[in-house]
Amino acid sequence: GENVEQHPSTLSVQEGDSAVIKCTYSDSASNYFPWYKQELGKRPQLIIDIRSNVGEKKDQRIAVTLNKTAKHFSLHITETQPEDSAVYFCAASSGYSTLTFGKGTMLLVSP
Amino acid sequence: DAGVIQSPRHEVTEMGQEVTLRCKPISGHNSLFWYRQTMMRGLELLIYFNNNVPIDDSGMPEDRFSAKMPNASFSTLKIQPSEPRDSAVYFCASSLGAPKEKLFFGSGTQLSVL
User: Fold this and answer.
1) How confident is the model at residue B99 (pLDDT cuts 50, 70, 90)?
2) Which of B42, B100, B108 shows the shortest C-beta gap to A97?
3) Confidence band (pLDDT; 50, 70, 90) for B101?
4) Which of A42, A84, B35, B99 is least surrounded, with the fewest CB atoms within 10 Å of its CB?
5) What is the mean pLDDT of residues A12-24?
6) What is the DSSP string of A35-99?
C-alpha cells in the first residue's frame, strides 16, 4: 500500500518568513495530493490539493509543488502569519483508493 | 449545511465498558470515513463506507471495534470492551464522489478510557 513520509515534524518561523513542508510517497500510481490544516482542538480542513497532471498550484499565500519523478510534493506558505500556526497534513491516493496521510507537521509562527 | 455532526464531543469511560460514537454525514454525500488520531500514529483510517456499504475495514484494529451505517444519514463506531489504548480523537468524515475527494471532517470525539 501507499506510504507517505512528512518532514519536518515541527517547524518554527518568525512572522513574515516562508515555511516549507515536504512529503514523499511510495506508490508511483498516486495521482492526487491534498493538504489539510488542523488548528488546535479543531477538525482537519482541506486547504489546497494538486493532481498529477499539474506541477504547481497556488492560492494566495500558499502553493503546492509536485515532482512525480522523485515522488515528492511540498507545501509552501509565504508571508506567514500567527493564524497559520497549526498542524498540516499531506496525503496521497491513487485511482479510487482512500487517502493515506502523513504524520503531520506542527507549524508555529511567532509574532 | 451543518456539516458533519459527531456525538458525543467528549467521552470518558472505564476500561471494559462499551463505547458508541455517532456520526451524521453531510446530506447527499455518499462516502463516510472513520479516522482515529493519536500523537504517535497520526490520522489512521479505520473504515470506509460507500453508499452505506463497508468497502475497506482493514484499518479496524481488532474485533473489539465494529462500525455500522444503517442508512445514508447515520453511522456508529462501537468499541466493546474498551481499553486505555483506545484513548484518542475519533473523527468521522464524509465526501461526495470518489473516496479521495475533498473530505469534510466532523468535530471529533475525544475518547478517554481510564
Assistant:
1) low
2) B100
3) confident
4) A42
5) 98
6) EEEE-TTS--EEEEEEETT-SEEEETTEEEEEETTTTEEEEEE-S--GGG-EEEEEEEB-TTPPP
